[in-house]
Amino acid sequence: MAMLFRPPPSQCRSFSPFVFNSSSREVSSSSRLSLKTSGDEENWVSRFRSKSLSLVFSGALAIGLSLSGVGFAEAKVGVNKPELLPKEFTSVIDVADFLSNGQEKRIAQEIANLEKDTGFKLRVLAQNYPVTPGLAIKDFWQVDDSTIVFVADPTFGNILNFNVGATVDLDIPRSFWSRLAGKYGNMFYWKEKGEDASIEAAVMAISSCLREPVGRNNCAEIQ
Where does the TPM domain start and stop, copy by copy (predicted)? Predict the structure, then answer.
């Protein structure tokens, strides 16, 4: 199983202390207080997360964890279940049955159009941990610097979790991902409207953002 490590500051400046490797960045759905915490507290949380918190590619999600240390979960056992992967390639994998067939097709078409128009690769995994393909999705999707892995899992509250490739990170403001999770991923939203509504809304917001011209104010609004 691939190990998680935290690259030195010269390689990566992470919005969230979650880091997969030097070319991708995991954004926790509730890391919103980082700008106001002390350096010591940030360093402690970074060290703690890099050792004990869950990983998308090992099967456990980017779990909502505030920098105050309240509300966390450990992932002691990684998951690698390639048998849960579909036999043919698809950009949308729903092992939790959140989406109807029609919704899956609409999302997959939106993702295909986005990749054709921008070169960015959005991939969606809907799951209820620990029922997840886990590490197996990395090779299945050939995840690279232009890939956004969107994992929808309501297990720990906020349903929206993202792993963002380095190329995407250069163009998209880091605050976009936490604002997106705050709007469409919070428990009140998905419990009222459904997990499927959260997933579809997030996909459309990501697509809209990635199509905007790169600049100081791109992705300022969550569509």
Answer: 92-184
